[in-house]
Amino acid sequence: MNKRIYLDHSATTKVKPEVLEEMLPVYTEYYGNPSSIYSFGREAKKLVDQARMRVAKALGALPEEIFFTAGGSESDNWVLKGVSYANKNRGNHIITTSIEHHAVLHTCEQLEKEGFEVTYLPVDNYGMIRIEDLKAAITDKTILISIMYANNEIGTIQPIEEIGKIAKERNIYFHTDAVQAIGNVKIDVKAQNIDMLSLSAHKFYGPKGVGALYIRKGTKIANLITGGGQERGRRAGTENVPGIVGLGKAIELATENIDSYNEKLLKLRTKLINGVMEKIPYTRLNGHPEKRLPGNANFCFEYIEGESLLLNLDMKGIAASSGSACTSGSLDPSHVLLAIGLPHEIAHGSLRLTLGDENTEEDVDYVLEVLPEIVQRLRDMSPLYEKVKGGK
Amino acid sequence: MKDRVIIGMSGGVDSSVAAYLLKKQGYEVIGITMKLRSNDDFEQDSGRDSCCSLSSVDDARRVCDKLNIPFYVINFTEIFEEKVVNYFINEYFAGRTPNPCIACNKYLKFDALLKKADALEAKYVATGHYARIIHEKKLNRYLIKKSATATKDQTYVLYNLSQSQLERILMPLGDYTKEETRKIADELDLDVANKPDSQEICFIEDNDYGKFLENKRGDKIKPGKFVDTKGNVLGTHRGIVHYTIGQRKGLGIALGKPMYVVDIIPEKNLVILGEEDEVFKNELLATAANFLPFDTLQHPMRAKAKIRYSAKESSAWAIPTGDNRFKLIFDEPQRAITPGQAVVLYQDDYLIGGGVIVK
Q1: Is A326 one of the annotated active-site residues of the chain?
Q2: Which range of residues forms the domain containing residue B337?
Q3: Which CATH number belongs to the domain containing residue B239 in this structure?
Q4: DSSP secondary structure code for residue B194 in this structure
Q5: Fewer CB near the terminus (10 Å): N or C of chain B?
Q6: Are residues B264 and B97 in contact, defined by beta-carbon separation less than 8 angstroms?
Q7: Which stretches make up the tRNA-specific 2-thiouridylase MnmA-like C-terminal domain (chain B) (predicted)?
């Protein structure tokens, strides 16, 4: 393979050298079990605590409010199940949105089978919830509002502060899945009235398989993983110390550099979006024009299938994505694009390009050179497009 | 530049070895697993290893990794539902017995996948079928010849391919026997070398098509009458979809002598039973004819005909009756000529063509 350009930073990111540098000695030198009393254990414990402080600082939380997990999906599962089970006596109603990650949606479906009631808030054409819908959905039985900070597919950023305010007024727990948001938007859980927040290290240049859940002190939540007394008895299992160390360093870097990172990505994104929209007719930009993640561009190209497009891009060395990939590796029309009102056949023709740290203007130039050709070639095969060109 | 080929990979030994052979022949090979069922049907681990289960996808992926060729899973669930599953269901409700594999070849492997080949700028689509495609210069047509292994010959399911499809299809296993294929897989140390052949209909669990139809359209299945060929009522049946021509077992009534399904009349919701000799017929009418050496059958022709995948070949006259139909008159009566099944004609090793049995 010749040229390779990675444009799928919402799927995962490359571990930064500074992050890896802190992680490596943990495997070979500081390999003690943090629960052990001797020096090896104490060293490891110290590293975990240091990482916890870094995460707390990045979120405006207290260290004792940070719990390490195996990633975003575990954190989401923990919140939904843990809050539901622990607050059964108060109510059985959960409010979420129709564009959440499957870690939330599928867990909600499971809870529905167990007798909980879930309201899935609709979104507008940009993928934003309406505050009045949220207000109207709240009942005496509502125990949890779980709304993602920023969408993984279309990048739309929700009005988190407003939601937090409403949740606080109505005395309902508010959780946000901030897996895509960390390092891209400034977060202060106290100022924004967030009670729980999920994050995952590999989305911000940290390692895979490690994440965290912020749980505001005093929140009633049942444990998900039971066993030993790690994480203040809330999450059993020997700590993934190298991963946790990597997460701590990665979140520190991500929040320190947030302004310059945003500036860089915005510049590239503007070039990319404008270029695509100018060069390729019958294209729509999905998501909000401004209230979106700085690296996210999501398009629908009418008259073609996203799948063929992605495969062709892959053959040209461009790593991109369409709807969320399923276990088999094949693509289904995205539930997010269907939720923002795109018809099924158009939702099939989507392309998500998510920019990141190592991307350059040349990368964008290459995409703007290759993509229009591929789209045109695929459209030339479409009988529907023939009709459009014929003016029928 | 090398010609690009996409090969449909089921995760089984045949398509795996076919991919290897193509690569060896110098093609640029891309492995594709066609995802045919929706996630709900697909991700349940029923312990089966049908051709589109998740473990089969993993097998195909491993084989491609080993051969160092790109691998993609492509979603064909909607078209499969429409062209294969719905056809399968509708045929039973029309009193016929469908062959979903033929429909899958026609609409999925050699149509939808060919379109994917265009999208991926591939010249050919390849499969692991045991059949030989040859270009006959004198006729300037593509013909299909039986494979080297008579027992594994799969030409039956290929009778309805068009010339424009055949031009772009490669079947590298045509010259190999199953044993040779397994041996190659073994030598390559492919994990799939000893995987058993799939026999069942891939979208039906436990081969229980009755249960499948009950689940899908149970409300449309209505009990009706068993009658004999003279119109005498013999009992009550569970709905015509549960019966097929020639069936004796599972009728659910005792008649004192062996009785067989000899006809199904959907408009009247009747299942006609008869004695063994009434299951045999001398002729059939076929529609949707397709021929390989020529476009249409002009004159009566001698051929050997197979009335189902597992049937023996029988000598017959094929007589054109217009409208893309033909009549077959067999030298010997045939057991259980079944509407909806394909009848396929051969001359020596050559597949001549075929059609769908009307009656």
Answers
A1: yes
A2: 280-357
A3: 2.30.30.280
A4: G
A5: N
A6: no
A7: 283-357
Domain count, chain B: 3
d(CA A346, CA A298): 13
Q: Do B270 and B284 reside in the same domain of the chain?
A: no
Domains with residue ranges and CATH for chain A: 17-256 (3.40.640.10), 257-390 (3.90.1150.10)
Classified as helix, coil or strand, B290 is strand
d(CA B128, CA B10): 9
Note whether B78 and B134 are same-domain residues.
yes
Same domain, B244 and B290: no
Tens digit of pLDDT at every position of chain A (392 positions): 578 999 999 999 999 999 999 999 999 999 999 999 999 999 999 999 999 999 999 999 999 999 999 999 999 999 999 999 999 999 999 999 999 999 999 999 999 999 999 999 999 999 999 999 999 999 999 999 999 999 999 999 999 999 999 999 999 999 999 999 999 999 999 999 999 999 999 999 999 999 999 999 999 999 999 999 999 999 999 999 999 999 999 999 999 999 999 999 999 999 999 999 999 999 999 999 999 999 999 999 988 888 889 999 999 999 998 755 444 455 667 888 888 888 877 777 789 999 999 999 999 999 999 999 999 999 998 877 777 776 64
Beta-carbon pairs below 8 A across chains A and B: 45
For residue B14, the tally of other CB atoms under 10 A from its CB is: 27
What CATH number should be reported for the domain holding residue B80?
A: 3.40.50.620
B74 contacts A332? CB cut-off 8 A? no
Tell me: do B9 and B156 sit in the same domain.
Answer: yes
Partners of B116 on chain A (C-beta within 8 Å) are 308
Q: How much is the pLDDT for B290? A: 95
In this structure, are B162 and B106 located in the same domain? yes
Q: Are strands B224-228 and B233-237 parallel, antiparallel or unpaired?
A: antiparallel
Q: Is B54 in Cβ contact with A311 (below 8 Å)?
A: no
Q: Are residues B80 and B179 in the same domain?
A: yes
pTM: 0.84
Query: What are the CB-based long-range contacts (under 8 Å, 24+) for A219-224?
Result: A219/A83, A219/A173, A219/A195, A220/A83, A220/A86, A220/A87, A221/A78, A221/A79, A221/A82, A221/A83, A221/A86, A221/A196, A222/A81, A222/A82, A222/A83, A222/A85, A222/A86, A223/A78, A223/A82, A224/A74, A224/A77, A224/A78, A224/A81, A224/A82
Residues B247 and B303 occupy one common structural domain: no
